[in-house]
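ESCALATION

Customer reports they have been waiting on this structure for their group meeting. Please prioritize. Original submission:
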Amino acid sequence: MKSAVLAQLEFPIIRAHQQADWALANETVLPDSSLIQAWLLDPDSLTAKLKRHCDSFEVKVLGQQSGSIRPDEAKWLGDDEHATIREVLLCCDGQPWVFARSVFPQSALDEQALQLGQLGNKPLGAHLFAQSDLERGAIEVAHFSPQSPIGQLNQQLGYPAQHLWGRRSCFKAAGQKVLVAEVFIGDSVPAKLMQLLQDEEA
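Update from on-call: job pushed to the front of the queue and completed.
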């Protein structure tokens, strides 16, 4: 993935006024593909799973700063309309597999046990799963059209217009909450399978 492409991306990818139809994962909202379901519902660390699928894993940080978050995000964090926003691309062998967006309150940023302000290009997921008191909330899923901000991001990265799937959960550690959303894009198994299914229907 060329650095020039990354430089053209405008952070944050997701704006406070943009909505996504997140819903608790159940058979009425999940995709038909059992393989995509397996990626969406896997309760373990996504970072660890991605590393098993490639030789080289890398985090490309798009940005991390305080800003306005969406109402559907704020409800998980105590209805605070402002929080730290972190958006990254998780890359396998140089290609983007996941767009990840995390939001957390200032109190989480200040919590020394979490050290969220010193993450840099380290994966947040692996950092959270290393916490001994980690609790993970229910998994929500969402479907993203080619016209959505994430669908547009996928195309900016050089991939065809297609539908994408993502998931999110609220993690709790050291008495703090961190909402993490992960959307499978680019060269990821779910995205490539969605493209294949889309081509078959065309």
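Sent to customer with the following note: The chain has one domain: 22-201.
Escalation resolved.
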